[in-house]
Amino acid sequence: MKKFEIKEEFYLNGEPLKIWSGAIHYFRIHPDDWYHSLYNLKALGFNTVETYVPWNMHEKKKGEFDFSGILDLEKFIRLAESLDLLVIVRPSPYICAEWEFGGLPYWLLNDKEMRIRSRDESYLKHVGDYYHELFKILTPLQITQNGPIIMMQIENEYGSFGGDKEYLRKIKHLMLENGVEVPLFTSDGAWEATLQAGSMIEDDILPTGNFGSKGEENFSNLKAFHESHGKNWPLMCMEFWDGWFNRYHEPIVTREVDELVASMKEVMLLGSINLYMFHGGTNFGFMNGCSARGPKDLPQITSYDYGAPLDEQGNPTEKYYAMQQMIKETFPETKQLSPKIKATMKHAGMNLKEKVSLFNTLESIPKKQTNAYPLTMEKLEQHSGYVLYRTTYRKDTDQEKFRIIDGRDRAQFFLNEQLISTQYQEEIGEDIEVLITEEMNTVDVLIENMGRVNYGHKLLTETQRKGLRQGVMSDLHFMLDWEHYSLDFETSDFIDFSGEWQANQPAFYRYNCELTTIEDTFLDVSKFGKGIVLVNGVNIGRFWETSPMQSLYIPKHYLKQGHNDLIIFETEGKYAEEIQLVERPIYKEMKENV
Pfam families recorded for this chain (predicted)? Predict the structure, then answer.
């Protein structure tokens, strides 16, 4: 039987082990590409892969669990094992990861009395229900049962959120109760305050540090923390940030290659390392996270390229080859291989086939509810996407003032299907003054959830409940009798293109896409304003003209030879008669925020 131990060093089967790990999130990569990414990690000379586990994907609805397709965690781990890679799993309820709500399920928000990431018994009951299913998969894959998993995380950067040790112990107990036998660890910023708050060193749980530079200084802090508790343990950077994520309205974040590789070498000479990220991948669908900054939340873009050694597609970058050379020179005994490289393709001349305005396909939307007052997305049992709220208004005056009260995140206000105002976060609540010419009027409010925050105190705030949280006022009173049309885009079958298209309205556009061969590709969305793209029914992510990236990555496995159904939902009234697939991402030059 294989054996992994934590003493003064890490030991594998009695031999000292330096962990060289890379982060690959199975849920951000098409399953048919997992092997490609894992192989390239092994080819670099690394011995371990690390992954988070997103609760909100595996249990989208309370009590309904999914471990299939892109969520087939066991298959991912077995693939790693087939390449002789060890595995570190971070199955904590909260993961951050620039992922929607930090991996927490949206339905937790329906209990306003419950406190997430705490000793709250109702929260822990939900975690326990989830762990009961999750660890059926993970526990048989532990090294103690001859599998590849060597370590698991208890909570993620908890020292940057709370200091509830009783909560941490209860999470640990749930893991042990569900059969976890491998060593456990915590990961936090490598300074005293976060280590004290987030670690469980007093319970003999290994603390690790997260940082992207100054390895000697950060490891010194970590070592001093170990020693202050009488421990002589190995040093590990659980997240060595080799790049960074990107947000709308901001330029692409870059890191100079030589500086990165020098910093990485410093860490590898002193201890163990996990590259965050090794392959970043893609925030498919609506799963991008959001940064909490002051009064405003700043959503991250669909691409999670991260400036990693493998690009969004999974091919080696300049960083990869520089890391490869450094390892060859510094650790010459390391076995390395040539990396795998996937092809890309271009395809021009995909013509617009059909188009229809959202308002003219409403009755085909399957998820419709009515209520006296508007309901939040959470109350509608809708994880993400859009909700169209509709009611009627009888004319009281020639000049009416409307206000959206407490909505999140982005609202488009329509009167008689004509756009009157677009408001975003802190603008919501401002007066919307309208000239009224009709006796009876239709009021529509299209609300987009642009992503819940993934880090910090705002996880606990009302801002994470999405949609219309209070309502819409005309004059000084709340309007009643709302229809709710849920647009989560879990399917595109509902779209009825037989209706009319009207200019300057949210609309659906279907393009004729005939392919004789298929490879990975990127869709040019630079002629559109804001929306999402559906490829053969799969939501591959959001686009916005304010993004530093003006293309969306399409893995070849979402395409097929022959006819492909490509639908764009666009909310700003901008579209193109012809679109194209390109071989490389399209970047937009943007100025730094002041």
Answer: BetaGal_ABD_1 (PF21317), BetaGal_gal-bd (PF21467), Glyco_hydro_35 (PF01301)
CB proximity list for 410: less than 8 A, separation 6 or greater? 422, 423, 424, 425, 447, 448, 450
Specify which residues 567 forms β-bridges with: 510, 534
Q: CA 432, CA 443: separation in Å to the nearest integer?
A: 12
The answer to whether the CB of 478 falls within 8 A of the CB of 533 is no
Where exactly does CATH 2.60.120.260 map onto the chain?
347-352+491-582, 368-487
Please give the order of strands across the beta sheet that includes 410-415. 368-371, 482-487, 385-394, 440-449, 410-415, 418-424
Fold that domain 4-330 belongs to in CATH: TIM Barrel (3.20.20)
Gap between the Cα atoms of 396 and 552, Å rounded: 46
Helix (H) or strand (E) holding 268: helix 257-270
Q: What is the CA radius of gyration of the chain?
A: 25
* DSSP percent split of the chain into helix, strand, coil, nearest 5: 25, 35, 40
Q: Which DSSP letter does residue 384 get?
A: S
Classify the phi-psi angles of 385: left when phi > 0, otherwise alpha if psi is within -120 to 50, otherwise beta. left
Angle at CA of residue 214, ends 209 and 216, nearest 5°: 75
Tell me if 505 sits within 8 A of 446, measured CB to CB.
no
**The CATH number, out of the four listed (2.60.120.260, 1.10.3720.10, 3.40.50.300, 2.60.40.1940), of the domain defined by the range 347-352+491-582:** 2.60.120.260
Architecture of domain 368-487: Sandwich (2.60)
Phi and psi at 246, nearest 5°, equal -130, 150
Each residue's pLDDT tens digit, 303-360: 999 999 999 999 999 999 999 999 999 999 999 999 999 999 999 999 999 999 999 9
The reply to whether 157 belongs to the active site is yes
- 217: which residues sit within 8 A by CB, 6+ positions away? none
In the chain, ranges of CATH 3.20.20.80 domains: 4-330
Q: How far is CA 345 from the centre of its chain?
A: 26
Q: Which of 50, 100, 239, 378 is catalytic?
A: 239
**Is 239 labeled as catalytic in the residue annotation?**
yes
- Write the pLDDT tens digit of every residue in 6-41: 999 999 999 999 999 999 999 999 999 999 999 999
For the segment 107-163, what is each residue's pLDDT rounded down to a tens digit?
Answer: 999 999 999 999 999 999 999 999 999 999 999 999 999 999 999 999 999 999 999
